[in-house]
Design goal:
There is one protein chain. It is built from 5 helices and 12 strands. Strand 7 and strand 8 form a beta hairpin. It starts with a strand and ends with a helix.
């Protein structure tokens, strides 16, 4: 799964990397090395603007945790941070978004916790930071959705909520000992087809959702401090030695 990630890329760099055509500089975010569910993040998507005739690539700030259109409450977001690639095309919560509202989440990498047996007491959780071995950003496959809060007038600033979820798959062999699931990331050659709102063939879209080749990702043990969402900073990605897990409490 993916329950925490780091996203410190500058919007200007994301715009250049993904060929973004539309971005409002006023819609900005501070870098974060500890993004948690219900936090906001930069998302790349293709969408036809109102009154337009073609899809335009946009950089948007959306909230993590998908809220389906039919949901009565936004509270479901915390439970819907990930969507399984094997069922995303058929699950009621995701299938409409999968058909026409796909996005890419540019991140430095993500955190995953491995359950480690302890000599005494309860098993402990050991965090890892997982990123591309070549140091380039991860382009995570995602879905986004619009939700209307009908408890407020339609013209109220809080009337609409736009949220996203991250698509996951079985972990590749080197990552499976840490966790059985991992987020899917896309190669540049797949960006256009994945983002194209006119591409609705589920078989063609699922063809893009393939695990990375062995060695593409690198998992590095990091500080348990990442487990506290109040902690944020580039030091959370720094490697930790095993002895530090034995002597440090958070």
């Amino acid at each position: 799964m993916c329950g925490r990630f780091a996203a410190s890329g500058k919007p200007e760099d994301i715009v250049e990397l993904f060929g973004v055509e539309q971005w409002d500089p006023a819609e900005t975010l501070a870098p974060s090395w500890n993004v948690a569910p219900t936090n906001s993040a930069f998302v790349v998507l293709d969408r036809v603007p109102r009154g337009g005739s073609r899809a335009v690539r946009q950089l948007r700030v959306l909230r993590w945790g998908l809220v389906p259109q039919w949901s009565k409450s936004a509270e479901t977001a915390v439970k819907m941070i990930n969507a399984r690639s094997d069922t995303v095309h058929e699950k009621p919560s995701y299938r409409q978004a999968f058909a026409s509202r796909r996005c890419i989440l540019p991140v430095d990498g993500y955190y995953e916790w491995q359950t480690v047996a302890a000599e005494r007491g309860k098993p402990r959780k050991k965090p890892f930071f997982v990123a591309r071995a070549d140091g380039t950003p991860l382009a995570l496959a995602g879905l986004y959705e619009f939700w209307r809060d009908r408890t407020v007038p339609a013209d109220h600033p809080a009337a609409w909520l736009v949220t996203f979820t991250i698509v996951t798959t079985d972990a590749e062999e080197s990552l499976a000992p840490i966790h059985e699931r991992m987020p899917l990331f896309l190669d540049p050659a797949s960006y256009d087809e994945w983002l194209d709102p006119g591409q609705a063939d589920p078989d063609e879209l699922r063809r893009l959702l393939i695990p990375p080749p062995p060695g593409a990702l690198l998992a590095t043990p990091v500080s348990p401090a990442v487990g506290n969402i109040r902690n944020d900073g580039p030091e959370l990605k720094e490697p930790w030695a095993e002895v530090e897990y034995e002597t440090t409490l958070f």
